[in-house]
Amino acid sequence: MAFQITTDKRVIIGKDALEQGAPYLKAMGKKALIVTGKHITKSGMVDKLVNKLQSLDISSVIFNDVPGETDDLMVETCKKAYKKNQCDMIIGFGGGSPLDTAKATACMSKLSGTPADYAGKMIEGQFPPLVLIPTTAGTGAEATKFFCVTDTKTQAKLLLKGDDLLPTLALVDYSYTLDCPQNITAATGMDALTHAVEAYTSVKANLVTDMYALDAIKRIFKSLPICFKDGQNISAREDMSFAAYEAGFCINNSSVTLVHGMSRPIGALFHVPHGISNAMLITECLRFALPGAYDKFAKIAYEIGAASYTDDIQTASNKFIDALEKLTKELSIPSLREYGVPYEKFKAAEDKMASDALASGSPSNTVRKVTKEDEIKIYEKLWDK
Question: Are 25 and 172 within one domain?
């Protein structure tokens, strides 16, 4: 059966990507809105970007009020800044939230209503030129047609999509990740791993996504623990940046599954960072999915060295789950209890979270049929850890 592949319009990967991308930036506009966070601003990286833009005769305005997960109010504020300052291009510079906010601002600068009005629809339009520069190795937002935004009225974390949301230019330079804090390294790295494994085992997987997903999984299992222990390890950081891009490419073309579906409501209701909530869920969600694709989970185990080729596929699959549990412990991923989520409030929210997860559509991509009751049982198991 034929399959379709969609990718960024242009991506430059490696050290000094900004320098190589300069000619393309120069052709995009005259005034950029830089969407970033306060940490990135304080680090001096934004100053370097501003200086590079000035050398290209591009002026800029900095919007760095992106403290956490993207929501509709933040997007509205950012959109007003874009229009008030008469910008003609947008640069997302940072982790997942600045990149998602930049995407959302680009489309909402041309569309009416709120992001919630476009849930479940393919977003289309002629949007401002969009440049995405990740400073973490995790979300893969620089490679995808998606963004997540919390609807503050319903407290639902929405996944919005459309091919026109793909960036005009992605600049993936591992050197921007070198000062990434240990906890962020772990959270974003687990997000990338979740993308890769879900894309590989999704019912929408294809030959191309399988190739990239397996490579990303191998790189992450090898290099994420190294980055966690030694953030200045250039080889490992480079590996992770590339793996995160590969994984983003994969979910752009074969989608995410149960983990992401169940993760978004935890983020929306309890403000757990996306990568952490994925990491909290990944073992139990994939354990549930195993019977639907023992062959694929076994392949992962063989490739990362968690199982021997003499192991049958069911044994190998379970060894992959064991390796996954070991990795999350090595990265000090907290449980819900350790993170401080109140059990009674979580218990009371389980029905809504399971409903929101199913409504997102992601669980339907899982290789095993998922029901609301299945999701509630998985949520309950998180408290046994």
Answer: yes
- pLDDT tens track for 251-307: 999 999 999 999 999 998 999 999 999 999 999 999 999 999 999 999 999 999 999
What whole-number distance in Å separates Cα of residue 275 and Cα of residue 99?
15
Q: Give yes or no for a contact between 202 and 236, defined as CB atoms under 8 angstroms apart.
A: no
Confidence of residue 385 (pLDDT cuts 50, 70, 90): low
Tell whether 79 is covered by a domain.
Answer: yes
- Based on the fold, state whether residues 249 and 131 are members of the same structural domain: no
Are the beta carbons of 230 and 166 closer than 8 angstroms? no
Q: What is the rounded CA–CA span in Å between residue 305 and residue 221?
A: 10
Average pLDDT across the chain, whole number: 95
117-134 mean pLDDT = 96
- Same domain for 116 and 227? no
Q: How far apart are CA 71 and CA 54, in angstroms?
A: 31
Answer yes or no: do 194 and 81 share one domain: no
**CA dist., res. 368 & res. 292, Å (int):** 5
Residue 179 dihedral angles phi and psi, to the nearest 5°: -100, 15
Number of domains composing the chain = 2
Degrees (nearest 5) of the Cα angle 205, 207, 209? Answer: 55
Residues 39 and 70 in one domain: yes
Query: How confident is the model over 303-349, as pLDDT tens digits?
Result: 999 999 999 999 999 999 999 999 999 999 999 999 999 999 999 99
* Beta carbons within 10 angstroms of residue 86's beta carbon: 10
The pLDDT, as a whole number, for residue 2 is 85
